[in-house]
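Now for one specimen:
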Amino acid sequence: DYAPIYDHPLILTTVDSKADLFGNLLYLFILLIQALYVILYTGVTLVTRTPKFYQHTYVEFENDTCIDMCDILTNGTHNFDYSDDGTFILYIFRFILFLFSCAALLKEFYQILTQRGRYFRGFFLNLLEIITYSCGIIFAMGIKQ
């Protein structure tokens, strides 16, 4: 009938000081990574070409699949040489976005395994994160991969 070691004042003080010392740095690191993810996602979204670039509208492709739309756009008369338009850089940024999204999705699954009940108490926020990272993976993959 001994008191648990975690209730000892020395242990409590050590754990609190460790959280004070490393907690802010860890929070800042996570915040910077998430800000970088949002900037990367926004940049890739803004640079990715839409049908308007090819003098088409989405209405023209209303009953087509995504693959059909891409075939029409890339095989049409407005298919330009992409070597000088930064397509390789866009490909690199999409790949980085893909890696970030996969890592974040793996982190969410790790949290599901380790936190179990606590994770599902904040279900809607965590569901939003899972949807965001999944959409990031789908968007980064593109149609040609």
The two ends are 62 Å apart (CA to CA). The chain has a mean pLDDT of 80.
